[in-house]
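FIELD: query
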Amino acid sequence: MNVRRRKLQPLPLLMLLSLLAGCAGGAAPVEDPIEDTPVSDASGATGSEDVAEQPILPYTYPLTGLPAEELLSNRPVVVMVENSPAARPQTGLHEADLVYEVLAEGDITRFIAVYQSVESEEIGPVRSIRPYFVQLGMEVDGILVHAGWSQEAMNLMVKHKLNHLDQVYGDHDYYWRDKSRKAPHNLYTSIELIRKGAEKKKFREEWTDPIVTFVLPGAGGEPAVPKGEPADRVDIPYIGGYEVGYEYDAATKTYLRLMKGEPHTDKKTDARLSATNVLVVQAKHRIVDDVGRREVDVQGPGKGVLLQAGVKRDIVWELKNGVIRAYDKEGAITDIPLLPGKTWVQIVPDLSKVTFGTGT
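FIELD: result
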């Protein structure tokens, strides 16, 4: 499979990232929200051991900030992944660069999983799309992948002439059914099939890079550690059987995901789902019909919390220039940089019900 990539000269790229991390749209520099010197985590390590093992490469993946030999320019793939009990454990979520979780209709949540740096061989189960899922996917300029839709979602896709693959209405060739599970919780796809579908349907290839801001290593090569209050545990009660949690793992410097108090793992590989950055953001929710479909304001701005490296800080969030971005709570115009790695965004109706703790 041919994957389009664009070559950049190393020096200009690093200069660009430095400008993005330290300046605000050409304005005077603002206070850097990241410590200048490395701070030890709960294990007492500064992270220099991990840095020594990282390959020194001149490029980074656009949506994770991790080292890459070349900078990708292929459009992200945005897959609607089911999260009902019959769909668990899912497959391929651990390979997504960015994942949003948000309430759908009734008592369920759904994942909007964004893939670009990993050519995942199996993703699913795939389910239908809602208008605020469309908004998240179109902001990152991705190819939308789903099985069915609400009328409002289809209206939005038609209005903006969005590229999408819909298994229910004609795009069967780019999905398959897993016979070990019952329909409708058994529909899967892969990046390879999605790319084939995009090529056959002549989807636009050029991608509008949102340029996500990531923390740069300090002068000594160690990753800077964000300011904030200690927080190595978060519990997010959605509805019914959708109690989500994260536990900070100092060894990997990631937050390990829980569902109903149990480790959330990948069906195919048994890998634990995890994130380097976890954003918990409060958004306005409104039920709009008898089925329980919702309107969710994923544009913002709103209040939220960002968890990184075992600490948390209050933020203001907004869907802008491709992804949900974090700003300091005073509303400064500069992004709070993400740490290189995967990011999960938990969209909730009431932040006051979310609890944070230490000492797990």
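FIELD: remark
The radius of gyration is 20 Å.
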